[in-house]
Amino acid sequence: KLPMMKMLLRLIALLSAVLLASSAPPTCYSRVLALSKEITESFRDLQTSRDMDSCVETLPRLYLDIHNYCVLAKLRDFVAYPRCDRVLQVGALKEKARSLYTIMISYCRRDLVFLTDDCNALENPVLFPAAPS
User: Fold this and answer.
1) 99, 128 Cβ separation under 8 angstroms
2) Cβ neighbours around 94 below 10 Å, total
3) Using CA of residue 62, residue 122, residue 124, residue 77, what is the dihedral sign?
4) Do 72 and 98 meet the contact criterion of CB atoms below 8 Å apart?
5) What is the residue-averaged pLDDT of the chain?
């Protein structure tokens, strides 16, 4: 009975540690990183959709690297793009991009560190395959 009790206590300790680690409040950086990945994936899904509107092909590329200072200009350009307003998914994507831009320049301004200002890297990114979910 004693080994079973020790194993049960270890399991409880492990589960408690996992719960504590996952309940930590998100940092500004983690929120920006998660939102940028979500936007990039949504844009990729929009472009590969079977029932894609023809105007989606004309949208500016939307690969986001929050460590690249040019991402701010990329977000501004995407939000200001005048076409495709009739496509609901594009409107939702523009709202997310606007939120990310606001978070980056207002709330996280002092927390973010830009490692590069290579705008070409956002136009021709090296994309790795998506990780399996």
Assistant:
1) no
2) 19
3) positive
4) no
5) 82
As given in the structure block, the two tokens for residue 21 are 């680690």
Half-sphere exposure of 80 (CA within 13 A, CB side): 7
3-state helix/strand/coil string of 36-97: HHHHHHHHHHHHHCCCCCHHHHHCCCCCCCCCECCHHHHHHHHHHCCCCCCCHHHHHHHHHH
Q: Where are the domains of the chain?
A: 26-110
Measured over all CA atoms, what is the biggest interatomic distance in the chain, rounded to whole angstroms? Answer: 70
Q: What is the pLDDT of residue 117?
A: 86
pLDDT, mean of each 10-residue run, the chain (133 residues): 75 71 69 92 87 82 88 93 85 94 88 84 66 51
